[in-house]
């Protein structure tokens, strides 16, 4: 994953230096923690997350588990790995399906975050798993959004519920509700509701998303965030958490060459798990997110 290439290289270099040492002195630990801190900050990981992370690593690295280890340097790498998994959300979190179908999944995020593309990716992935998803086009803000969802639906081979001309046009809450009702009638077991975003956080958009949430009472609200947006990721995530709240995070555009660290901060800052990763424009560039695998990739 190109996004974390630089961070990976920096950490690898830090650990290489550490491995040349046998027993670790407090100064060795401090030096290592300082380098990890710089590498994370340069990768755009949010300051409060970095502080928390390096504080925990330092405390553990100075403790018994390292001083008594046969290979102290290896033990420090192991600690970094464990703490990295922790900031990435710990355990993998799977989608929660409703006991009584349909399972309602609402997508939220800024315009351009990758929501519409994600709707197609998620639908295709669910359909391959034997589900019968339908997409609902409740993004009525962008002129092309409904057509774009229809194109994505066709590519994924899943139906799309879109407002009929004259019926619900301009009223995304009604379209979302009608879409869910339609899905129930047609016995789809999953409904994915695409909603509107703006280029920046905006009170009206947030209210609309919150209204949709209230009207359809989704089982999951997935907040889609572009890994390339840098330090803005944290403020954006907080705004969506306050305005709409979400049950999980999707990191999109992890294929880019941005530093990505800000997106890595989102799980830790919001306390919501990263559930999926989007890694390209094709509908197959998509995978469930595994904190442990991501940590291994970064530390490899
Ligand atoms: P929305 O406004 O949130 O619905 O965002 P879109 O789904 O329309 O995506 C915005 C742009 O980003 C489109 O050109 C997508 O093809 C592109 N895109 C979406 N996800 C990814 C991804 O994971 N990687 C890359 N490289 N591009 C993506």
Bound molecules: guanosine-5'-diphosphate
> What is the radius of gyration computed over CA atoms, rounded to a whole number of angstroms?
21 Å
Q: Pairing-aware structural class of the strands and helices?
A: alpha/beta
Largest sheet composition:
8 strands, mixed
Distance between the termini: 11 Å
Helix content: 40-55%
Number of strand elements: 8
| Chain oligomer state | single chain
Q: What does this protein look like?
A:
The protein has 300 residues and is an alpha/beta fold. Helices cover 51% and strands 13% of the residues. It contains twelve helices and eight strands. It has helices at residues 5-19, 26-42, 47-61, 64-67, 72-87, 115-128, 145-156, 172-185, 203-216, 232-243, 261-270, 291-299; strands at residues 103-108, 133-138, 160-161, 190-195, 220-226, 248-252, 274-278, 286-288. An eight-stranded mixed beta sheet has the order 3-2-4-1-5-6-7-8, with helices on both faces. β7 and β8 form a beta hairpin. The model has no long low-confidence stretch (mean pLDDT 92).
Task: Describe the structure concisely.
Helices cover 51% and strands 13% of the residues.
List the SSEs and their pairings.
Blueprint: H1 5-19, H2 26-42, H3 47-61, H4 64-67, H5 72-87, E1 103-108, H6 115-128, E2 133-138, H7 145-156, E3 160-161, H8 172-185, E4 190-195, H9 203-216, E5 220-226, H10 232-243, E6 248-252, H11 261-270, E7 274-278, E8 286-288, H12 291-299
Parallel strand pairs: 1-4, 1-5, 2-3, 2-4, 5-6, 6-7
Antiparallel strand pairs: 7-8
The structure holds guanosine-5'-diphosphate.
Guanosine-5'-diphosphate binds next to helix 6.
